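User: Hi! I have a protein structure encoded as tokens and I'd like to know what sequence might fold into it. I'm fairly new to this, so please keep things simple.
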């Protein structure tokens, strides 16, 4: 990554003037549109208190130092340092983005990361919230991998508990054409599963009926995820925890550490004993009827993940689980792990909008929109793009009518069209003998609009780093729409294929190839295709 290389180069130089710690904090940012700079840094501002000097004085001194090393920079009144990049630097970026498959690989701590998401109960088809979590989790994993991190994705199958027993009863009622319990599962999907049961199923006990239903639903969920371009490294069944007696082991560990107490016949985690900050996080581990709580089983699962060699755990949970975070961190700390190595992303609700109205859904009543139905209506590309357009912390209004439009109003169509448009330009370039292969020796002075488009392409690496920092990927579709808008403005204003000025045409071909590659990479990272023709 060219900006990263530049940062590292400057950090090394700054070690001549500052401690390694201070020098290592130097970073470059993309400046606001109204600032006349290609990159900027608030380094002088950030270290002013540490070194006991005014930001502007530090910035001026650093500019003198860096200019002597060949950098084009200037100090501005607020203490920022603005940098201007040479055309040569930008041409080298084009070469790297087009020919270096590891361009986005970064140096990182090489720790092993486990990312768990979706983990829907195996009691019915996947719905919109599952699609949203899948889009976020899979896209985030793709970004981590693109930047060179070691990450594994995981789906937790909650195949133990009351809901599983209720599923078995509901299926048997469907099979025998009997009334389904009021609190049972009324979805029509059980009618289809019941058709697959053999005749002797009328004599099956509830466990066997539940197992059959779960196997069918998990197969359905796996196909939904695969068709949605989401492939997990592991589907982990909760029943495995119980086979390995891990909940019991967790309880024993906590008892040995004197972090369990009895109250009202139940066993509780004394979270405050793990850390004062968790004083309000005491929770039941074993109920008075001697049954494990979900909390105890979840602690066993997280202990299992740490014990499998993962250094960091990232969980994506639904909006109704926000209050669950402190108790989980308390439990992890009580077990002897660093609770800061668990990061939880809460994704908010998804509202499906059609004809300007919210489409109601209720999984228990059987009246809900499945992910499969949404895919069939608007397509995978629109689903994947729309699901990650907003921050996970924000409610998403999924507009079906907009997602189906084949116009520039639809952001996914708008972005994909740029890729297809540039593909067409490349085909036409070949017809008039303008090479589309990058020449490292090429030299051409870029004009302001050409630089602006190329710089926006260069900034993509900062977008990906921000995704990792925020554990969110909405920055990508936002960036892609901005880049597409810049391309359209450029294309409307400037002719690309100019046979009368082949040097200019060649430069613009190179710039557009960099834009096309960036669009393709960005779309791939969020699981969206980049068609050559539309």
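Assistant: Happy to help. Inverse folding works backwards from shape to sequence: for each of the 534 positions I chose a residue that suits the local structure. Here it is:
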């Amino acid at each position: 990554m060219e900006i990263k290389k530049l940062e590292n180069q400057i950090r090394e130089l700054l070690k001549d003037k500052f401690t390694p710690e201070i020098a290592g904090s130097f970073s470059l940012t993309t400046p606001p549109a109204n600032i006349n700079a290609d990159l900027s840094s608030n380094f002088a501002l950030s270290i002013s208190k540490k070194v006991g000097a005014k930001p502007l004085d530090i910035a001026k001194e650093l500019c003198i130092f860096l200019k002597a090393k060949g950098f084009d920079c200037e100090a501005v009144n607020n203490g920022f340092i603005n940098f201007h990049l040479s055309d040569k630097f930008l041409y080298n970026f084009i070469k790297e983005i087009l020919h270096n498959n590891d361009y986005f690989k970064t140096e990182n701590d090489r720790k092993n990361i486990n990312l768990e998401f979706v983990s829907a109960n195996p009691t019915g088809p996947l719905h919109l919230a599952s699609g949203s979590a899948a889009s976020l989790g899979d896209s985030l994993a793709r970004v981590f991998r693109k930047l060179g991190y070691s990450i594994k994705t995981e789906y937790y199958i909650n195949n133990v508990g009351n809901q599983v027993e209720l599923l078995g009863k509901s299926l048997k009622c469907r099979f025998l054409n009997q009334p389904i319990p009021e609190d049972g599962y009324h979805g029509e999907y059980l009618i289809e599963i019941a058709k697959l049961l053999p005749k002797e199923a009328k004599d099956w006990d509830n466990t066997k009926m539940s197992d059959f239903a779960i196997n069918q639903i998990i197969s359905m969920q796996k196909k939904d995820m695969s068709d949605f371009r989401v492939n997990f490294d592991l589907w982990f069944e909760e029943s495995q925890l119980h086979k390995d007696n891990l909940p019991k082991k967790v309880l024993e560990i906590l008892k040995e550490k004197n972090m369990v107490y009895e109250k009202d016949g139940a066993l509780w985690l004394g979270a405050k004993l793990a850390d004062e900050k968790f004083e309000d996080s005491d929770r039941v581990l074993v109920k008075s009827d001697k049954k494990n709580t979900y909390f105890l089983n979840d602690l066993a699962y997280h202990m299992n993940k740490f014990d499998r060699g993962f250094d960091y755990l990232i969980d994506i949970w639904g909006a109704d689980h926000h209050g669950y975070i402190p108790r989980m961190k308390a439990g992890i700390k009580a077990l002897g792990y660093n609770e800061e190595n668990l990061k939880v992303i809460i994704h908010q609700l998804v509202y499906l909008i059609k004809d300007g109205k919210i489409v109601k859904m209720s999984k228990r009543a059987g009246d809900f929109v499945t992910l499969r139905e949404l895919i069939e209506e608007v397509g995978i590309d629109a689903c994947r793009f729309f699901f990650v357009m907003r921050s996970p912390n924000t409610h998403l209004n999924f507009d079906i009518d907009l997602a189906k439009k084949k116009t520039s109003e639809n952001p996914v169509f708008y972005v994909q069209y740029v890729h297809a448009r540039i593909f067409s330009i490349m085909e036409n370039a070949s017809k008039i003998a303008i090479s589309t292969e990058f020449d490292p020796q090429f030299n051409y002075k870029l004009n302001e609009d050409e630089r602006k488009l190329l710089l926006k392409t260069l900034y993509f690496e900062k977008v990906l780093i921000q995704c990792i920092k925020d554990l969110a990927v909405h920055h990508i579709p936002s960036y892609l729409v901005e880049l597409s808008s810049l391309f359209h403005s450029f294309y409307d204003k400037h002719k690309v294929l100019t046979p009368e000025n082949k040097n200019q045409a060649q430069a613009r071909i190179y710039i557009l190839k960099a834009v096309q590659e960036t669009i393709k990479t960005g779309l791939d990272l969020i699981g969206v295709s980049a068609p050559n023709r539309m």
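A useful reference point when you look it over: The chain has a mean pLDDT of 92. Feel free to ask if any position seems puzzling.
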